[in-house]
Design a protein that fits this description.
Largest sheet: 2 strands, antiparallel
Structural class: mainly alpha
Number of strands: 2
Oligomer: single chain
């Protein structure tokens, strides 16, 4: 008795078992078939043709009197650049001209601190005075040894060293 109950519901040879399994596989197969067929169908792409015309605003350019202001951006540069330099170095204490001023030859454009170069001038004057003193000493030596050289009281070597 138990075998007949089992065979009617679960027996693989029976048609009830097969119908239930066929229905479980049919729904996904139909869904896949519909997807493939719709993907291969014609597309709704627009036909190739001229691009659509866009509306534009047209303005006629003409000359107008009046004080219309035009604002532009840019860089202003001089036509000529002139490099200026002092003959001596030092700290600039006064500038007589501004950027963009026109200057002429010989015009004073700035002043340097005197203390920087006045020390160098004083040192040069002191060196000149020392050199003049050595020159006077050398002339005196020549005047002293010149009369003694012919008499033999001074050797030629001593005379040359004095000169």
């Amino acid at each position: 008795m138990q075998a007949s109950v089992l065979s009617s519901r679960t027996d693989p040879g029976r048609s009830g078992f097969r119908v239930r399994n066929a229905g479980a596989f049919a729904a996904p197969a139909v869904l896949a078939l519909v997807t493939v067929l719709t993907a291969c169908g014609p597309t709704d792409a627009p036909e190739e043709g001229p691009p659509p015309v866009r509306p534009v605003r047209v303005v006629t350019v003409d000359e107008r009197p009046g004080g219309e202001t035009v604002t532009l951006t840019g860089t202003v540069q001089a036509q000529e650049d002139v490099a200026l330099a002092f003959r001596i170095g030092g700290q600039l204490i006064e500038r007589s001209v501004n950027v963009g001023d026109q200057i002429s030859a010989g015009q004073i454009v700035g002043r340097l601190d005197r203390s920087t170069w006045s020390d160098a001038v004083q040192a040069a004057r002191a060196n000149r005075a020392a050199a003049m003193a050595r020159l006077v000493e050398a002339r005196n030596q020549v005047e002293r040894f010149e009369p003694l050289l012919p008499r033999g009281f001074v050797s030629r070597q001593m005379f040359d060293q004095a000169v």
